[in-house]
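Give me structure tokens for this 187-residue protein.
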Amino acid sequence: LKNEDVSIRKEAIESLIGVTDESAIDPLIEATTDESAQVRFKAAEILGNMGNVAFDRLVSKFTSESGKNKRFLAFALKETNNEKAIPLFAEAVSDDDFGVRKVSIRALGELQAHDELDTIAKGLDDEDWGVRLATIHACADLASDESIALIKKARRAEKDEDFKKSCKKALKKAEKLQKLITKLRKN
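Here you go.
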């Protein structure tokens, strides 16, 4: 993973897919800052798939990093699906880096952090289009009356037609999820 040749680093990262050995965690964390986007992404994905094995070390590195070096750590943490990361993501919604904010908001939605809806909603006022988009998707993941109302509000306030289309898709997803949840509760 430290070889100067990017093709060798890509090969090395591919060979670590499915590995859950703790000795691979630190080299993989280091690889999340590789100059190759493919290596960074795959390292984060592998770390996320390790789940609880890598969680504590990811948290430690995530809380000590900043800027773009934190982006792929955020993605790795999100992929662990560990609810213990919710407070970290809630705090990271205010991060200086748009990529960290975007991944954090998406993670809050995917982790069903209903108590953090107000935190998620902050993303609707973000200057970054991708963060605003992540926010409506997170609201769709939550599929609550309150989160659906936020998507509708965002759609009404937005002038960009592509964003409005994304809002419509998010609304459809949220309403479908809401119906499914209601159906499951009745059974």
